């Protein structure tokens, strides 16, 4: 009797846990591919693209142009958020995530096959921009979709933990990209510029195939299927979201400025360090160490938010990053390599992980299931769009005066304050039942 009575409950619980783990794995692999692709582009933009895709001339101008192509993808992200967010709230999380994955992987592979400026002239940067736009369209909805799906599949009281694996995947992607570029950075410049830089782009196919196979086997979250089966989904999710969740949209938009820290460190930070004499290979190892630790630290931070609340952990992390960025740039300027490792790791695996690991669940939880994908995807892109152009802005402000790193640090600090304002405004959601999240959507 006891076994018969308890059997179905245990089976249902185990089934939910299996689904949650599978969703977390899919989010991890998708995040790894997205940021492998984005980080190898950021690295190539810092070290290679200014020399092969643009006419010879002023090195600083060429670097700014290279960072401009990096930022172009962030312009496309909001459009990807609208299009794929709509599909995610209409046809489902799974199929939409497969689409974004294939688009990202295809664009990355093709970038590795592009001819350079010497071969085709201005067609080279033009084609680079087109493929970068494709990456941006995909990235505009990748994290939001993976976060929504992981949140909806997670057991009660553990939504933060399971959703955080999308962010651990991003850290893994940065590690893989850094490892892929280490031998490239060690090459002679002629070999690196001729063909070496292409190899990391082509290697993205491996991650793409694995992630594709996992995502194809996913199921739709039950909370979404309930609305779908009863014909309760809305016709235009993104328009309905603006009507029913305007405050939540602006809260997410403000909090999304926490992403400036990572984008700035991984792109401008690398270029700045190289300009003051720190070897590129050293900075790649700095990134690897911090992100390896962050793969483990982010689920821990998310677990703390499940227990103590999203807001206190998020705000502590954002304020910490805003302060630590001054230490980070000061030690780079002095060339103190051991301290560069320490400062970068304290941010990447410490303060930044505290905020970054939490937003997948918190941003998702602020919206009703009917508009969740659209709300998170579009709101998230506001800060990320600004983040994409901060390397360009930092390069322009710092210029050739390498001791003048202050403007760069203040960009990150100001972004952190915007994120804190959004967090104070947003509601606490860690204890709210899944089906009660968000505002009512008629």
How would you describe this protein?
It is built from 21 helices and no strands. The protein has 442 residues and is an all-alpha fold. It has a single domain, classed as MFS general substrate transporter like domains (Growth Hormone, Chain: A, Up-down Bundle), CATH 1.20.1250.20. Helix 1 runs parallel beside helix 4 (93-111) and helix 17 packs antiparallel against helix 18 (337-356). It is globular.
Main attributes?
disordered N terminus, mainly alpha, Growth Hormone, Chain: A, 442 residues, 0% strand
CATH superfamily: MFS general substrate transporter like domains
Helix content: over 70%
Structural class designation:
mainly alpha
The global form is globular
DSSP, total strands = 0
Number of domains: 1
Total helices: the number is: 21
- Order of secondary-structure elements: HHHHHHHHHHHHHHHHHHHHH
Overall mean confidence score, pLDDT: 83
* Biggest pleated-sheet summary: none
The appropriate CATH architecture is Up-down Bundle
Which fold name fills CATH's third level, the topology? Growth Hormone, Chain: A
Question: Can you tell me the CATH class?
Answer: Mainly Alpha
Rounded to the nearest angstrom, the distance between the terminal CA atoms is: 44 Å
Whole-number radius of gyration?
21 Å
- Report low-confidence residues grouped into runs of 5 or more: 1-7
Instruction: Report the sheet-strand fraction.
Output: under 5%
Oligomer description: single chain
């Amino acid at each position: 009797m006891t076994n018969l009575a308890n059997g179905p409950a245990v089976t249902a619980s185990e089934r939910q846990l299996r689904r949650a783990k599978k969703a977390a794995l899919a989010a991890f692999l998708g995040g790894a591919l997205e940021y492998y692709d984005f980080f190898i582009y950021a690295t190539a933009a810092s070290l290679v693209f200014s020399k092969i895709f643009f006419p010879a001339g002023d090195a600083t101008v060429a670097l700014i142009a290279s960072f401009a192509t990096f930022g172009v993808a962030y312009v496309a992200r909001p459009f990807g958020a609208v299009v794929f967010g709509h599909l995610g709230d209409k046809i489902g999380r799974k199929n939409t995530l497969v689409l974004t994955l294939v688009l990202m992987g295809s664009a990355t592979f093709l970038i590795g096959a592009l001819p350079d400026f010497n071969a085709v002239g201005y067609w080279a940067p033009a084609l680079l921009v087109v493929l970068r736009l494709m990456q941006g369209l995909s990235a505009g909805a990748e994290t939001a979709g993976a976060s929504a799906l992981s949140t909806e599949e997670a057991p009660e009281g553990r939504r933060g933990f399971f959703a955080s694996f999308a962010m651990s995947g991003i850290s893994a992607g940065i590690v893989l990209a850094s490892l892929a570029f280490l031998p490239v950075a060690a090459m002679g410049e002629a070999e690196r510029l001729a063909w070496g830089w292409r190899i990391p782009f082509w290697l993205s196919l491996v991650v793409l195939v694995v992630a594709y196979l996992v995502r194809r086997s996913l199921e739709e979250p039950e909370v979404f299927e309930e609305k779908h089966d009863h014909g309760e989904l809305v016709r235009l999710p993104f328009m309905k979201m603006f009507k029913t969740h305007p405050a939540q949209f602006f809260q997410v938009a403000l909090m999304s400025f926490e992403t400036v820290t990572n984008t700035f460190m991984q792109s401008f930070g690398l270029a700045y360090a190289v300009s003051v004499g720190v070897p590129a290979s050293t900075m790649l190892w700095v990134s690897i160490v911090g992100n390896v630790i962050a793969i483990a630290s982010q689920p821990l931070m998310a677990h703390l938010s499940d227990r103590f609340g999203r807001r206190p952990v998020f705000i502590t992390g954002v304020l910490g990053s805003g302060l630590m960025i001054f230490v980070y740039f000061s030690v780079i300027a002095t060339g103190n390599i051991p301290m560069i490792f320490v400062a970068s790791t304290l941010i990447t695996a410490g303060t930044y992980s505290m905020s970054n690991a939490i937003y997948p669940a918190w941003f998702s939880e602020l919206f009703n299931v009917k508009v969740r994908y659209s709300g998170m995807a579009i709101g998230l892109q506001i800060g990320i769009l600004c983040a994409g152009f901060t390397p360009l802005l930092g390069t322009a402000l710092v210029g050739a005066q390498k001791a003048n790193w202050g403007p760069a640090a203040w960009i990150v600090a100001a972004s952190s304050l915007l994120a804190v304002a959004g967090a104070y405004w947003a509601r606490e959601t860690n204890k709210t039942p899944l089906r009660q999240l968000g505002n009512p959507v008629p």
